[in-house]
Every structure is written in structure tokens, then in C-alpha cells.
Amino acid sequence: MTSVAVSFDEASAEQEILVPGAPGPVYAPAGPVVFVVPAYNEAENLPRLLADLEERPWLFPARSRLIIIDDGSEDATPELGRAYSGPLPLELVALERNQGPGAAFRAGFAAALQGCPDDALIVTLESDTTSDLDRLPAMLERAEAGVDLVLASVHGGGRMVNVSPLRRILSVGAGVAVRFALGLDARTVSSFFRVYRASILRRALERYGDTLIEEPGFACKAELLAKLAGLGARIEEVPVDVDATRRIGESRMKVLPTLMGYARLIIRGKVRRESAPT
């Protein structure tokens, strides 16, 4: 891994590193960072994501890990993960069949929390390179300041670039419906791009166990957000743009199954609230 020079600004209590070729000092997380990245048929995008991460060695302090969860891909995605021999601390978790993002995140979080200290940060992001890694230092900084969950927020100051009108409507509409139905104070509820403190995920697993993520599809991220909010997690949003042209190929999110997932999530949330003791 590329060697870096580390400096510490006592006035702002921000750790920065100076990396040759970087556009000035960049924020360096003090503790380990564990990346959890679900991938399904991403053989064209995964090498590009790995190259993007290799260019940012400051995101991988000591004991950091990169966990790729292959969700039963039918292309060369798992082979690429197994064959990787670069500088990143890559681990591959291979699911035997395609089960959807919910199962991928369950497997990824289980792997990430093994031997992971409570002060570690767990980053989830898309494997199709649409997550803007240049905004990740700002998100990590907020998490290290004590925020339990930091959301990459497209609707809280970020922008959707080169995204179809249908996807925009789905994203905005689902966000409004879920926020209203579940009482969430967050604008972007479904993006994969997030930073969690390991301690809040452990608390959630102790509380919910195997039911922490019940939704198999893309609505699983809204479900997890609602359950963490119910535990009193401190949640903040950092504006992040999403540019669909970064991706090779089509999005894996299917509109109708995703809408059905949000509907199930809203119904389950309503039932839980009505059955809760007063």
C-alpha cells in the first residue's frame, strides 16, 4: 500500500494525510474502515471500482478490509474477486444463488462485524461505481465525530445526474412515502452509499437478530434506516451527487419489485406501530 505522510491539526481536531498526486490534504480516518459492497453481475464495473479504491489508499488505515459480497452472479464477478492480487485487503463472500440486496447486506454485515472494534466504520456502497468516493472523507469525518449513521444524500443537497425521469420519480416518491409512513427524518432513504459506526450495527443485531433486514430487495436500506432510527441512532446526511454515466450497463434495481418492497415495508411499519404498547 502506498506510504503516506500524516499530519494532525489540533485546532480543528481533523486528521489529514498528504498523498502525492492528491489534490491537497485529504481527511484520514483514525480507525479501521470496513467496506461492504454487494455485487451482482458486475464483471464490467468491479475492476473499475477496485481501481478507484486503489487510488485512495488513505481510506484504508490499519486493520481495514474490503468485503465484496457476490450475490449469485452469473458472470465473472466472483472469479474477479478470487483472482484479485492488488494492494486492497479484499475478501470475497460468495452466495450460492441470487437472493437480492437484503441477503447480501446480511452476509456482508455478519462478515464485517467479526473481529471488528466498536469504533470501526462500516462503509456500504454500490459496486457499479456510481458512489462518489470523493465525498466519502466528509462522510467518514461525521461518523468519527460521533454520528451513528451518515447517509449520502441525493435529495438533501446532492443531485441526480443523467438519471431517467422514471428513476427520479421512484426515488423521490418512495422517499416521501417511506418518510411519512415510518416517521423518518431523512431525505434519502434507499441509497447503498452510507457510513455506519460498527457499534450501532451491533446494537441493532442484538435488538432484532435475524429480523434486522427482512426485505430482500432494494427497500432493505429504508428498512434498516427505520430500525436504526427506532433505536435512537444519531443520523446525518452529507450532500452527494449520483451520476448514472459512471456505470457500465443497466441498474439492477427493478421498478415494480422495488415498489412492492416499499409497500411491504410501510405495511409492516404501520402494524408494528399500532401493536406497540402505549
Distance between the termini: 55 Å
Task: Give the proportion of residues in helices.
Answer: 25-40%
Tell me the series of helices and strands, N- to C-terminal: EEEEHEHEHEHEEHEHHEEH
Q: What structural category characterises the helix and strand content?
A: alpha/beta
User: In total, how many domains does the architecture comprise?
Assistant: 1
Which value, in Å, is the CA radius of gyration? 18 Å
Strand order of the largest sheet: 6-5-4-7-10-8-11
* DSSP summary: helix tally: 8
Number of separate strands = 12
Large-scale geometry: globular
Q: Indicate the CATH class.
A: Alpha Beta
Q: So, CATH architecture?
A: Alpha-Beta Complex
Stretches where pLDDT is under 50 for at least 5 consecutive residues are: 1-13, 274-278
Largest sheet: 7 strands, mixed
Q: What share of the residues does DSSP label as strand, in percent?
A: 15-25%
Mean pLDDT: 82
What CATH calls the topology is Spore Coat Polysaccharide Biosynthesis Protein SpsA, Chain A
What is the CATH H-level superfamily? Spore Coat Polysaccharide Biosynthesis Protein SpsA, Chain A
What does this protein structure show overall?
The protein has one domain: Spore Coat Polysaccharide Biosynthesis Protein SpsA, Chain A (Alpha-Beta Complex). 36% of the residues lie in helices and 19% in strands. The chain has eight helices and twelve strands. α5 (165-182) packs parallel to α8. The chain starts with a strand and ends with a helix.
Write a compact overview of the structure shown.
The protein is of the alpha/beta class. It contains eight helices and twelve strands.
